Amino acid sequence: MNHTLKWLVALACFSVAVAFGDPPTGKYKRIVDDLAQVQNSFPAYASVFSIGQNDDGTEIYALRVSATPQRMDGAKIGHLMVGTHHGNESHAPLFVVRFINHLVKRFSTDALWKDGLADHEWTFIPVLNISGYNSSSRYEKGVDPNRDYPGPCNPNPGGKLQSIRTLMSFLSQRQFSGAVTVHGYIGTMTYPWGVDTDTVETLDHNLFAQITAKAAEFNGYRHGTHTDIVYPATGTFEDFSYWKYGMWALLLELKSGSNQDLDDSVLAIESYYSQLAATPSTHFDFLGKCLRARSIDLQLD
Question: What is the pTM of this model?
């Protein structure tokens, strides 16, 4: 059986296995095909699955990378990466796929045991805002997905979008230590708090600062709290996941999306994950006072 035929058979099996809702279309289909390609090339370490559907009934596909990828294993150290909250940030899913390929190649070498990768489980969601990505729009159903989460200064319950409710439900299914979301294009790595508060530093601030400083040696990005480095924003994934679960949450703002930028940032984020504790923080209480926004939310993140 030639390589092309093998790929077609694998893709057909993938479609039968995971296509419960409407099939992927447009640019999103190409990203899903990339996930299927990884699964086909590294079946021992990579498995495509759906975390659920969005408001359009489209499956939100993810890739699990671990030594036992066919099932979720909560006993392993969990890490998460989510791309494309904003559909106009077109390099976000490309970064996620590039990071996946970098990781699975490490899994296929002696590093699996030498570096303790066998004890880890990564979940990658390259495109969360599917309709926005296909139409190059920041928004999904007129809503900014990265303002749709509950949080310490958000008076709204969040979850207007089914995609956000689906992701929040998925987050409750296992413990995640590290979480990275991918955006563009500022050239920063930021962490909680991102809300407008009189106390922007969390109890983990010094550790966040230490970890991101080392990671930034690879891509030269500015780093710090989102409020200090970019601007305050309410309802973001990073504040929610840290505030709710203690995840070591980072917002990666790609600088240009060039090949060099992507490659350097792959190494930076690899460094970030490698420095994290095996478990989430236990010091994630919000101790500040919520303030009125001091600056306009420019909606870049």
Answer: 0.92
Into which CATH architecture does domain 3-275 fall?
Answer: 3-Layer(aba) Sandwich (3.40)
Give the domain ranges of the chain: 3-275
Contact by Cβ (8 Å): 208, 242: no
Nearest to 47 by CA among 96, 104, 115: 104
- 83-101 confidence digits (pLDDT tens): 999 999 999 999 999 999 9
Beta pairing partners, 124: 63, 81
Q: Across the chain, what does the average pLDDT equal?
A: 92
* Interval 177-236: pLDDT, tens: 999 999 999 999 999 999 999 999 999 999 999 999 999 999 999 999 999 999 999 999
Count of beta carbons in the 10 Å neighbourhood of residue 12? 11
Give me the DSSP letters along 168-184: HHHHTTS--SEEEEEEE
> In angstroms, how far apart are the furthest CA atoms of the chain?
64
Provide the CB-side half-sphere exposure for 166 (13 A, CA).
Answer: 21
């409750």: which residue's tokens?
Answer: 172
